[in-house]
Write a structure and sequence with these properties.
5-stranded mixed sheet, 33% helix, alpha+beta, 401 residues, homodimer
Amino acid sequence: MAKTCSEKVSMITCTAPVNIAVIKYWGKRDEELILPINSSLSVTLHQDQLKTTTTVACSRNFQEDRIWLNGKEEDINQPRLQSCLCEIRRLARKRRNDEDPNAEITLSHRVHICSVNNFPTAAGLASSAAGYACLVYSLSRLLGVDAELSVVARQGSGSACRSIYGGFVQWKMGERQDGTDSVAEQVAPETHWPELRVLVLVVSAERKHVGSTSGMQTSVQTSALLKHRADRVVPARMDDMIRAVQGRDFATFAELTMKDSNQFHATCLDTFPPIFYLNDISRRVINLVHRYNQHYTETRVAYTFDAGPNAVIYLLQDHVAEFVQTVRHFFPPESNGGEFVKGIPVFSASLPDELIRAVGMEPTPKGISYIINTKVGPGPCAVDDPTLHLLGADGLPKKTP
Amino acid sequence: MAKTCSEKVSMITCTAPVNIAVIKYWGKRDEELILPINSSLSVTLHQDQLKTTTTVACSRNFQEDRIWLNGKEEDINQPRLQSCLCEIRRLARKRRNDEDPNAEITLSHRVHICSVNNFPTAAGLASSAAGYACLVYSLSRLLGVDAELSVVARQGSGSACRSIYGGFVQWKMGERQDGTDSVAEQVAPETHWPELRVLVLVVSAERKHVGSTSGMQTSVQTSALLKHRADRVVPARMDDMIRAVQGRDFATFAELTMKDSNQFHATCLDTFPPIFYLNDISRRVINLVHRYNQHYTETRVAYTFDAGPNAVIYLLQDHVAEFVQTVRHFFPPESNGGEFVKGIPVFSASLPDELIRAVGMEPTPKGISYIINTKVGPGPCAVDDPTLHLLGADGLPKKTP
C-alpha cells in the first residue's frame, strides 16, 4: 500500500479523527500496557472539522527515527511513542515472516513521522487520541500490517484506541493481563444516526492544569468513589448506553452522557488533592442545558466535559440553530471576534422570549470563544493526493508557505 | 429556671453556636424525622464570634404562637418549627405529669419567639443549625424540659442537633425507625484542643442556589456514589476522625476533613441535575491550601466547604498569622473595604518569598470579602442579663434603636 515517492523514500499520508467519550475512561489497572479499570464508549467526530494528518516515510537513507509534531521536532524516545513503533514493527515482521519474506521495504529502515492537527492544541480537545490513532494507522499502512490496530494505538494513549474506528465505538476493558482483549469495537457505524450533531463549545484557551495521565493515577490511588464507579456503576451504564445508541434513543443517550460526565468529574473532586477541570463557565453551560431541557420538558441537549473546561454538546440536527442562538444569547461573543460558529454552517434562529426567561441566567460576555459544529464521522483513512504529504522527497517536513 | 419579667409574661434568653462539620451530613433516610444516611462529626464554633440569640416568652395573654427572625415576623406554621414546638411541649407535659403537676407555667399558653444572628445570613453559614438549637434549648429552659435535646433540635434541622453541645460533637445516625437513637454526643469538650483555630473565609455574598433540603433529597435519589459513601466510606472515616480528635493529631484531622469535604461536593456533582456549591474562588482557596501545605511538607491547614462557596479553615494557633497574611496576599482586599479580619485579632506577619513563589498563584483581588477568626467553643447557654431580652414586657420585639 505504501506509495513510493522517490526511488529511496516510501511514504504515506493518513488522517484520523478525534473522539469524545460519552462513557468516560478514567483510571488504569496497568500503566505500562494502558489497561483501563472500566470500559468506555465514544463518538468519533467528523474529520471535516477535526482531524490529525500524519505522513510517515521510511528510507534506507534515514539515519534515525524522527518525529515532527505541529511543525516542531519532538523526542522520538518518549516511552509511549516507542511502544507504538516497536509494536507496529513487531507485527510487520511477524507478517513478513508469515507471508512475504521478500517485501520491498526493509523493516530495519528508520522512519520519519510528521503530524499536524487542524485544530489548536489549546482548544483542549484530546489531540493525543487522534494523534496516536493516526500514527499507528499510517505506520500500519506503510509497513503492511494487518492486525487489530486498536491494541497498538491503546499503548500510545488509552483513548486513541477508540479513534481507530468511525461512528460509535466501545473500548472493552478486557480481562487478560497481556491486554490482548482490551480492544476497541464499533458499536454502530457513522451512518447509523445521521441526525446526531456535536457542538464543541470552546470555553477557554487555558491549558489544563493537571494532565490526564498523572490525574488518573492519583484518582486510582486516592478515590474510593472511583473504584465503586468502575466496578459497580459503569458496567450497567455501558449496557444501557449501547442500547440507547443502537435504538437511536436520544433522551436516554443524552441523560447517560450527562450523568457519566458528572460522575467522572465527581471522582476527580474525590481525588486527593482534588482535581478540577470544570470552571465557572463550564458550570454555567451545565445549568443552561438543564434549564433548556426543562423548558421543553424533554431532554433535547446533552453536555459532556473531558479533562478541561470545554463543553461538548450532543443534540439532534433540528435543535442546532436554536440552541446555538441560545448559547450566543447567554455568552455574547466579541462583536469583532471573528466567526462564532465554525464547521458546519448554522442557520440563524430567533429565540422565543419564554425560552430566554426560562433559562433566566445573567449573560456572560465572551464566556465562550467559539463553537465548532460537527457530526459523527468515519475512522482513519489514507490521503490519495501525494501533494498533501507533509514530508518532502528528502524525508524532511515541507516548508509551509 | 424561667425568668418572670412581669406578672403575666415568663421569658428567657439563650444563645447557641454554629457548628462546622468535618465529616459531612448529606442525605436523609427519613425526611419526616430527619434521620441521616450516615453519622457526622463537627466542631462547635465559639459564640464570641458567631451565635444565635433567642428570647422565648409565654403568657396566658398571648393569642397565638408567633416568631420573629432577624427582625421580621415569619410563619410559625412551617412544619419543622411545628415539629420542635410540639415535641418540646410533649416532653414538658410528660415531665409535669411525672414530677410537677402544679407547675407555674401552663403548657397551653402560647409562646412568642424572637431570634437574631450576630452574623449575616448571606455569609452562608449554617444559621439554621444555631437557630434551631437555640430555639429548642430556650424552650426547654422556659418550659422545664430535661430530656435529650439533640433529638428535638434534629427535627428542626438535622445539623442543629450538633449545636446542642460544645467542643467536638458526633451525630450518631442511629438505627431505630423512630429516631430515638439518632442523637448528638460530645466527643471532646471545647477545652480539649486549645490550639485549634478556625477561619471563616467569606468568599461571596451570593445566596446558595440549591437549598440543602431539596439538594440532599435529589442526591439520595440520583447519586450512586452517595450511597457508597454513606455505607462504605464514612463508617471507617468516622472512627479515624474520632481518634484524630481525641489524640489531637492535626495532620490526620486535617487530611480527613479535606477529603470528606471533597467527597461531599463530589456526591453533589454526581447528583442529577448536578449541584454546585464550590465556585472558582473556592477552588483557588483549595489550591492555595494544598500548595501551602506542600511548601512546608506538612499538613498545616485544612479547608472544608458546606452548601456554599465559603471556606472554613482549620489550623493551629501558631500558623494563623502567616496563613491569614498568605490569604491577604493572594486575595488582596479592597483598601477601603473595612477590616479584613474580624473576630480574634491577628498579628501581622511577613511572608517568606519562597512561600509566595511556592504557592505561585495569580492574585485574585477582592476574591474574599473578609475573614472571621474564631476557635472551638461551648454549647448553648442562658443569658443572665434581663436587659438583653429581645422581647419586651408586652411580648413583642423591642424596637432596635
